[in-house]
Amino acid sequence: VLPNIYSAWFKLRALTGGKGEQFAWAQLLRIAAMHRMTDKEFERAIEEALDAMPDQFLEALENVAVVWADEPSAYHWGWDGDENWEDAEDAEDEPLPDDLLGLFDGLSLVERAEGGYDDDIPDVITVFKGPHERCFSSREEIVEEIGKTVIHELGHYFGLSEDQLAAMGYE
User: Please, which residues have CB within 8 angstroms of residue 2's CB and are 6 or more apart in sequence?
Assistant: First the structure.
């Protein structure tokens, strides 16, 4: 085990651009404290979070799918495909955050009312497993945060901005 810890420490130190030993150790401890879930456990956690949602939220949804992915992809980050995704991940000046917990991909009800909505393809709320595991250290915390993530993304479906959601406690 010890050689693996030191190997991970050196890799983290290199990846963090030499921010220092304390930073590398802090990241290593954060990773070690992660609560890992199997795919089935994560799916069940999403189901529990959805079951705990108020009925009026769920009844108001029209053509919205809730799905999960291990990690955000280039598409989720809004990468347009004309540039190299690996270059974006390796950029030292602005590394991509590792805490994107979810994403609403679709048209809000406000945008739908303005016209042009084609309901052939559902809007999608994606919940990301890896960031939830990295950011929260217990199953209970993960389930609670999945609920907050889904409510946050539903807020976008209902037309709320990031600032409005933050003011409501759903950052």
Answer: none
Q: What is the mean pLDDT of residues 37-57?
A: 88
DSSP secondary structure code for residue 96 in this structure: P
pLDDT tens by residue, 137-157: 888 888 889 989 988 999 999
Residues 150 and 101 sit within 8 Å (Cβ to Cβ): no
| Partners of residue 68 on adjacent β-strands | 127
Sheet with 102-105, side-by-side order of all strands: 64-69, 123-128, 102-105
> Confidence class of residue 93 from pLDDT cuts 50, 70 and 90?
very low
What is the model's pTM? 0.70
Q: Which residues contact 137 (CB under 8 A, 6 or more apart)?
A: 33, 34, 35
Q: Strand pairing of 64-69 and 123-128?
A: parallel
Q: Are the C-beta atoms of 143 and 120 separated by less than 8 Å?
A: no
User: How far is residue 35's CA from residue 26's CA, in Å, rounded to a whole number?
Assistant: 16
Q: Where are the alpha helices (DSSP H) in 63-124?
A: 85-90, 109-113
4 touches 12 (CB < 8 A): no
